[in-house]
Design goal:
single chain; 2-enoyl-CoA Hydratase, Chain A, domain 1; 6-stranded mixed sheet; 3-stranded mixed sheet; globular
Amino acid sequence: MSLVEYTREGQIGYITLNRPEKLNAISDEMSLALCDALYAFYDDEEAMIAILSGNGRAFCSGADVKQRQLRPKEELKKLGGPSAREGNIRHPFFKPPHAKPIIAAMHSYCYGVGLRIALYCDMTVASKDAKFQVTEIARGIDATPFWMMLTQRGAGVFADDVCFTGRVWNAEEAHRVNLLTRLAENGEHMKVAKELAEQVLNNPPLAVRAMVEARRSDLEHIEAKAYSIRPRTLHLSEDFRESALAFVEKRKPVYKGR
């Protein structure tokens, strides 16, 4: 079975994160698989819209800490960050061959890179049991792109709050600050996402794609600015490694500011 699956029913494509035993934590291999699934959706001429969801007990618990954040320091230095060079999920969102809309349908954990994937999506649905967190700040790496994307969605000082504190927030709070298109009852996130997709399908596809292109173009400019001003070496700091080690060892981290 693929780490990310793509299927289609009628005009709706379904992209499913499929690493349930790890709460869909994103590894290098899974990132590549997600890119492949997104391109499969774009290339599917019968698919007009997609729903991106997570199999099992969570949407996505974030990055695979053991693989990505505990790489040897020399490898981190060579890569320029915790992620591998291949499988950059920004590319299929910001440079798609066809700008088709994607709905994120979330439940349970939506942490770190899982939250970033959801923010890249054009619309968002979450069940009331969903929980969100910008884990980057707690890991000692840059959270600037999250802060700017949350602000772009109208979250205002809420973005300051969650990016400085690194706290978890729930779906009802996310809905109040305009981070969700729809709020669903527990277990109903896929049903509500499908209903939303069918509403979008009532419109001419080219007009919808024009909206997708405009939205993602604006988001790409925001991300480009975030990357231009971000610190470059936080992934090489002692605090970054200490945070990852503490997470794996299930203990409280001890930070030294270096």
